[in-house]
Amino acid sequence: MNAVSIMGNGCLILRLSHCTQTGLVLILINNILVLRMVEMIHIIFTGNGSLMTACYQVALRKLKGKRLMFVGDSLQRNQWISFICLVDSVIPKDKKSMKRGRVHSVFKAKEYDATIEFYWAPFLVESNTDIPIKSDPKQRIIKVDSISQRAKNWLGADILVFNTYVWWMSGLKTKALWGEFENGEEGYEELETAVSYRVALRTWANWIDSTIDPSKTKVFFTTMSPSHQKNKEWGNVNGIRCFNETRPVTKKGHWGTGSNKEMMNVVASVMRRMKVPVTVLNVTQLSEYRIDAHTSIYGELQGKLLTNEQRADPLHFADCIHWCLPGVPDTWNQLLFAYL
Questions:
Q1: Which of 9, 68, 72, 271 would give a disulfide with 88, using CB separation of 3.0 to 4.6 Å?
Q2: Which residue, 234, 277, 243, is CA-closest to 16?
Q3: Where are its TM segments located (predicted)?
Q4: Is 294 a catalytic residue?
């Protein structure tokens, strides 16, 4: 049965047959392809999850007295919400709070004196489209050499988890600007996306190296989250993007056009040159298989659930970028738990 429900713990759960069915999930660990049962999803939410409950309590104890901050785009928000949903059930109702903001949101676990935060920064560096968002990619200009105004809000965090990818992939050249927006938006250069991505990541890396004390702050970087827009890539020639997909891809090493290897190589090359150690959460390959795990027509658009008319038009309205919860971002966070 397809339904959307708000659980008592306040987490939005999309209960979708194509998202949470019991089955086999393909996961790449240390370059070895293994099969993993997804009954864990059911264990967590059926009251039989004592083992998982203990794991989440351990994670919270590791966060005691600390600030964990996710920084990035809506996929990073997806991971942040997943993290909160996983630990929320083991926190008493009167021992937690949530403050949502357009840029900065904070979940507080009072008993542990811990916060789990999200900071909206889709390019990490500054741009003219963060708030308010410019829906037309042609109007977006990225200030590739500037990060300090937003990064000052990340200071004091004990654990920082970054990502940036999907906003770069508009199919257009990137309009890159050096200097201040206050002096106008003229003088930008149109660069190949991988070039501007590298410059922006170097700006971010320089800030990390010059500002972060690795003895006090752990830094993570989540690799690109795949989108699944082209159903022919996994052999479903009669399909409509990720709509109505009910099983993962089973072909070993499946890699679609939703993940750009050139951009991934940029991440690797920039990280190698950094002085501050950054733990890379490589979630791309394991997520590539999960054509069945997107919100599809059961998501929202501009903060509202899709209408029946919109759901009837998956070609234009199916979301094949973001993920169902419980789902793929939970696995990302299980990897993160192991490093906390």
A1: 9
A2: 243
A3: 12-34, 40-60
A4: no
